[in-house]
C-alpha cells in the first residue's frame, strides 16, 4: 500500500469483523508487510464511517495496537504504522535513557549496596536440608517462612503467598484481580513498574496526589467519582519521593477506602526502613493485599517477596500464578527464613538502616547548604524539584552522573523533578554531586 493507507482499502480488509478480530487482522497485515512501517493510517472517524461502526470501536482497536507497539501517534498529526513486533513492553521500565559514554556514577536504580547485604552461605546450606526440597507439590509458602513472617506481619492475615520478588507479586495481583477498562487509583508519583503493569492489562490510571503524609484525601475523593476498582499505594516509604505514610493519614482515608473493592499495599523497601508499615487491613481485612519484598534487606538474588490476602483473593492470585511458575523455590524461601531468624542478620539490618540513612543525609545536608529544596525523609533516594528535567539530566550526564527524570514515575507530569539514588553513595563524592545538581538550576 502507499504511505497514506486508503480508507476504502483498509475497510475492505476489516469489514464485518469484531473489535478483537480487527486487532488480529491488523496485526497480521502489519507483520506480513502488507501495511508497511511508516504508512499513515486513515483517521478514526473516517474509517469508522466506512466500516459503519462507532469511532469508539475503532479507537479501541487502535489503543490495543498502540499498547503492542504496532502503531503510534494521535490527534492532528495522525497515526502511523511504527513496528511489526506485537509483543507488549514495559515502556517506563525499559526507557532508561542514553546517558552517554561519560557516565562515572550511576544513580538511577534505587538498589541495595551488595557490600552491605547479609552473607548467604549458611542460609543456603541450611535450606538444602529442607525436608521437602525438590518436591513438585505446589504450596503457597513454606511452613518455615510463614512462621517467621507471620510473627512480624502488620496484621493477622488469612493467607500468605511467597512470590519471586515484589513485582512478581504485583503482576500476579494486578493481572488476576483488576479488569481491563476499569479505573485504578495509584499514588503519584509511584514506581514505574506499577504504572507499566496497570496499563499493560488495559486498566486506566487515576493519579492520587501525595503530600508529606501520603495520598491526599481530596485526590482520593475526586477519584471515587470514577468508581475505581482498586487503590494502589506504598504503605511505608514511597520509593520515589521518600515520603513516609502516616497512620494519621490512613485514618482519614479509611472512610474513602470503604467504597473501593480492592486495596493493594506495596511495601517495596521492607525491613530496611526504620518506619513501621501501615495497613488498611485492620479495618478492611476482606479487601487488602499486602506485599512485602525482601530484595533490599536480604538481597535481590533471593528473588523473594511475600503477600498476604483473604483466602478468596489469595486463591484467585494463585490461580493466575498456575499459568506460570506456580510456586517459588523452597530453597530460596527457607534461606530467607533462616536469615530472618538469625540474630546476626537482625543486627546487620539495624546497621544497614543506619548506613542508608547516613548516605541520604550526606546528600540532603549538602543540598541544604546550597539552598536546594528536596522532598521526603527516608528511603534510597532523594526527590528534587528542578526548573527543567531535560536540562538537569543533560547537565548531570555531562559531568558523569546518571539519574532518572521525575516524569518516569508519573502519569501526568507536573512540576519537573529528578530522582537521585543515595543507597550507593560514597561520602567523598557528595559535594561534587551537589555542585552539579546546583548547576541544574542555571537555566536561562
What do we call the CATH homologous superfamily of the largest domain?
A: Type I PLP-dependent aspartate aminotransferase-like (Major domain)
Query: What composes the largest sheet?
Result: 8 strands, mixed
Count of extended strands: 16
The helix/strand class is alpha/beta
Distance between the termini: 47 Å
C-alpha Rg (nearest Å): 24 Å
Shape: globular
Percent strand: 5-15%
Number of domains: 3
The name of the CATH topology of the largest domain is: Aspartate Aminotransferase, domain 2
Please count the helical segments.
Answer: 17
CATH class categorisation of the largest domain:
Alpha Beta
Key structural traits:
444 residues, alpha/beta, Arc Repressor Mutant, subunit A, Aspartate Aminotransferase, domain 1, Aspartate Aminotransferase, domain 2, 3 domains, 40% helix, transcription regulation
Amino acid at each position: 500500500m502507499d504511505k497514506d493507507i486508503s480508507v476504502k482499502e483498509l475497510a475492505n480488509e476489516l469489514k464485518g469483523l469484531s473489535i478483537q478480530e480487527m486487532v488480529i487482522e491488523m496485526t497480521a497485515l502489519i507483520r506480513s508487510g502488507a501495511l508497511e512501517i511508516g504508512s499513515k493510517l486513515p483517521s478514526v472517524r473516517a474509517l469508522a464511517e466506512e466500516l459503519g461502526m462507532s469511532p469508539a470501536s475503532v479507537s479501541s482497536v487502535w489503543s490495543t495496537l498502540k499498547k503492542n507497539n504496532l502503531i503510534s501517534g494521535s490527534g492532528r498529526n495522525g497515526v502511523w504504522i511504527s513496528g511489526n513486533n506485537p509483543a507488549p513492553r514495559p515502556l517506563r521500565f525499559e526507557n532508561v535513557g542514553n546517558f552517554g559514554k561519560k557516565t562515572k556514577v550511576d544513580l538511577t536504580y534505587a538498589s541495595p549496596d551488595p557490600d552491605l547485604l547479609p552473607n548467604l552461605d549458611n542460609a543456603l546450606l541450611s535450606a538444602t536440608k529442607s525436608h521437602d526440597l525438590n518436591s513438585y507439590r505446589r504450596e503457597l509458602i513454606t511452613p518455615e517462612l510463614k512462621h517467621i513472617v507471620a510473627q512480624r506481619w502488620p496484621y493477622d492475615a488469612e493467607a500468605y503467598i511467597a512470590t519471586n520478588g515484589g513485582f512478581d507479586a504485583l503482576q500476579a495481583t494486578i493481572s488476576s484481580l483488576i479488569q481491563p477498562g476499569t479505573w485504578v487509583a495509584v499514588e503519584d508519583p509511584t514506581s514505574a513498574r506499577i504504572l507499566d503493569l496497570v496499563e499493560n492489562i488495559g486498566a486506566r490510571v487515576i493519579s492520587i496526589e501525595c503530600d508529606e503524609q501520603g495520598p491526599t484525601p481530596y485526590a482520593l475523593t475526586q477519584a471515587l467519582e470514577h468508581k475505581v476498582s482498586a487503590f494502589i499505594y506504598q504503605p511505608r516509604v514511597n520509593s520515589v519521593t521518600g515520603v513516609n505514610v502516616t497512620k494519621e493519614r490512613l485514618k482519614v482515608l479509611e472512610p474513602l477506602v470503604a467504597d473501593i473493592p480492592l486495596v493493594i499495599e506495596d511495601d517495596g523497601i521492607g525491613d530496611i526502613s526504620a518506619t513501621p508499615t501501615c495497613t488498611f487491613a485492620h479495618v478492611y481485612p476482606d479487601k487488602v493485599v499486602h506485599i512485602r519484598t525482601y530484595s533490599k534487606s536480604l538481597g535481590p538474588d533471593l528473588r523473594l517477596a511475600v503477600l498476604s490476602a483473604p483466602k478468596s483473593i489469595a486463591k484467585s492470585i494463585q490461580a493466575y500464578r498456575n499459568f506460570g511458575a506456580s510456586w517459588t523455590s523452597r530453597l530460596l524461601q527457607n534461606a530467607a527464613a533462616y536469615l530472618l531468624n538469625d540474630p546476626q542478620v537482625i543486627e546487620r539490618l539495624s546497621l544497614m538502616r543506619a548506613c542508608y540513612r547516613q548516605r541520604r543525609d550526606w546528600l540532603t545536608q549538602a543540598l541544604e547548604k546550597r539552598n536546594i529544596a528536596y522532598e521526603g525523609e527516608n528511603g534510597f533516594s532523594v526527590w528534587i524539584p528542578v526548573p527543567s528535567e531535560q536540562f538537569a539530566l543533560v547537565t548531570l550526564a555531562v559531568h558523569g552522573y546518571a539519574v532518572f527524570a521525575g516524569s518516569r514515575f508519573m502519569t501526568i507530569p507536573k512540576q519537573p523533578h529528578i530522582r537521585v539514588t543515595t543507597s550507593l553513595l560514597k561520602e567523598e563524592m557528595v559535594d561534587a554531586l551537589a555542585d552539579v545538581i546546583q548547576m541544574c538550576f542555571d537555566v536561562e
